[in-house]
Amino acid sequence: xxxxxxxxxxxxxxxxxxxxxxxxxxxxxxxxxxxxxxxxxxxxxxxxxxxxxxxxxxxxxxxxxxxxx
Length: 69
Fold this sequence. Notes:
- By secondary structure, this protein is mainly alpha-helical.
- It contains 2 helices and no strands.
């Protein structure tokens, strides 16, 4: 179940691209501490993906239900 929503490593790839972009910005600006994130790790993004994937069909079902009432 742990890797169910990490389709083809998409979450890991996205986090790697985000980290590389942040490192590039630090090199360009010389900012200190810019790589310090707010403590949100890969687990948060995977959890958010699970919630969004579950909420989509539920909201669709509710809208179909109200369409026929």
